[in-house]
Amino acid sequence: MNWAAPHRVCGPTPLHGPLRQSLRSEMRGRDEENRGGPRWELLKLKNPAMSESDRQTEGEESDRVDEVGRRLIVREEQLFSQDSTSEDNSRLQKDFEDLTLQIWTTVQNTFTSSSSSGQLDQLRNAVACIQQQEVQDRRWTDRPEDRLPVWRPLKCISAHNTLLHNLVESRLTEAAEDESGGTEGFSSPLKREVCHMGRRVRDDLLTVARTVTDCYPPEMDVLNVYAGLYHQSFSARLTELAASGPEISDCSYLLLWVNHFYPHTVLKHEDLDGKMRVERSSSLLLEDDLTRLEEQYLTHQEDKVKLWLSRALQKEEESWLSGANPELIDSYCYSPLAADVIQMTDRVLTESGHVIREQSRGERITAHLESFLSSYKTSVEQFVKMNQMNLRSVIKAHLVCEQQFRDYVTDPTGNLTEQQRQRCLDTLTALRDCGYRYFTCPIHLELKVCYRHLWTSVWMDGSLPVVDSLLNSLIGQLTDLKDLREACRQSLLCVVHQDVVLQYVMRMMKTKMKGREQQVGGAQRMKEDAQKINDFFTEGGCSESLWFSEVLCSIAEVLRLQDPGSVQLELVSLARAFPDLSDVHVSALLSLKTGLSAADTRSIRRSVKENRLLDVSTSHSPPFFSRVKVQSDVVQSNVVFLRSSPMWSSPMWSSPMFCSPGPVRCGPVRCGVPQVQSNVVQSNVVQSDVVFLRSSLMWSSPMWSSPMWCSSGLVQCGLVRCGVPQVQSNVVQSNVVQSDVVFLRSSPMWSSPMWCSSGPVLGLLYFLCGN
């Protein structure tokens, strides 16, 4: 904004007319008051000075004003030390009047060609004369008023400051009315007026700081005098303009001067900063006026940003639905949406940062960016469901947009609050995952097909290259990503790499190891597969996820080792390297080690727990095991135990209660074996089912009369504590059921804490029917 263009300066303005008449009237008034009164006689001087009028007649008009002032003081002392006529008094009074007029003319011409050394000398002499007269005023201070010269005290400094006030007012008025060049780009008279006045304030203060201050003594502090006068006059005019109800463009420009240009560009100029006592916190506008204008400005900006973002997204959606493919820039699919939104948002925020005082109020602008990203994510998700022909290229373009938005949001110099930044990142992560899923879903299907053969005999002996087949299929699917921006392609490859390793580990943890040979052989095969996977993604340019191979190799080492102490050390090392390795994961890994005793297992688990990193933040490893879903060791071991029991052959498990998807939320039972999915038992869910069962006709089933349900052990643990009434044993016992009850009651399984939970049927119903 070219508000600093040079301005027109006015020429010398001699003190004639009203000011001259005012000074003369003041002196003559004093003469009338003291006429006829006694005079105070000063000592007679040996060398009386000539009158000023006599010196002018002799052509000595070039005398310095301070020298003229000294001669007048000498005449004044001579006059009042002896008898004098009224004519002498009148002549001296007129000479003092002429002297003061000459002083004020010089002061008023301060800003006209102030760089001229001659004019600076005149101003310096005028200021020296002012000081002389102030000293002479003080000499007469202790004299009675009726014995004072009619022109004393002259009060030159007071008159000087009054003159500066009038000078500042006139210069700002002149600037406001100036129609000269330099502001042609402004669209309104208010902007031109404010620009001219602000420019005049800055230039005049710089003139005072650079040249005028050298003409004044430090005690007069002329820079702060000028600064205060300009602040008051500028503030008064801006207050009038603010009260006139300016339009939004005028409002923003007015705020720009009040909150940015004046405090930062003017007061903090290198030639002014630190030299003035003008409080930067004292605004040019009153608090009420400033708050009202800022609210008007922010409301307008909010509406503008909201409308612009809505139209930008609508235009983008229309482009998708038209079937058009995104443009190619540098051989990759590109959409200008993110760049346009970021540029517009950044421009508005930058302007708002200069226009309003509190930067925190800019949250009202960034809140619309947050809302836009949420709408943008929803639009992309809906478009993916439509599965149009241009979907693949559109997703590639918007993965680039997501990365651009993420870079903008995470920029530490940005304008978003921490809460807004986190919410925006969550939205962008969901947007990115939506795009990634489109490309990874076919890969997941391929993983399921290939990984079915892991830990089979053909995989163990190498006759079926499972991982090789998988990687060959990935080559064809990843080839289509050539027109995806390189940074986005690398990120997507890291996600695919993670999925490949995650599915590999989860498949391994579901495997039932049969012996040492299978563990050792499988471990060796795992290391070979890890190297192949690592090499594949390294060649693809994915260098940020190569640590996945370390995970596979560490797990393979756990399988290979047979000594309990070595297994313990390896698991402790793995837990410290990856703090998200939970106790459940440790139990799942140990369950693969069929050669370990129960005591060894407990000891290893305890050691891993004791030797974990106390401060997880010190680990720089990204999360991995938290993405590996495994069953709780207690649930898993008991379900395995129950599955192997002959009790499952009992006809009672064919009851609708265990096969119905409703009452106990167990879903269809495959082969009479319930599938336990959750690691957490929710008593409130089971309780509601028990209430349902109480009112159900199912309780009339003969199976509930079995001694198994009425025996003290099972009833107390499972049903009585839940408030389920006991059923009398009036039905003939089934030999199969009876044998199972004896077997179960003698099993260590009943000592598990799961049977002692207070939740309804947490013991039996949960593990038989699932959550």
TrEMBL record:
Extent of Basic and acidic residues compositional bias: 23-44
Q: Which GO terms describe its biological process?
A: exocyst localization; exocytosis
Q: Which domain of life is it from?
A: Eukaryota
Q: Where along the sequence do coiled-coil regions lie? A: none
A UniProt-annotated Pfam family = Sec6
Can you cite an annotated GO cellular component?
exocyst
Q: Where is this region: Disordered?
A: 1-67
- Any one Gene Ontology molecular-function term assigned to this protein's record: SNARE binding
- Alphabetized Gene3D superfamilies for the sequence: 1.10.357.50, Exocyst complex component Sec6, C-terminal domain
The family classification in the record reads:
Belongs to the SEC6 family.
- Know the name of this protein? Putative tumor necrosis factor alpha-induced protein 2-like
What organism is listed for this UniProt entry? Scophthalmus maximus
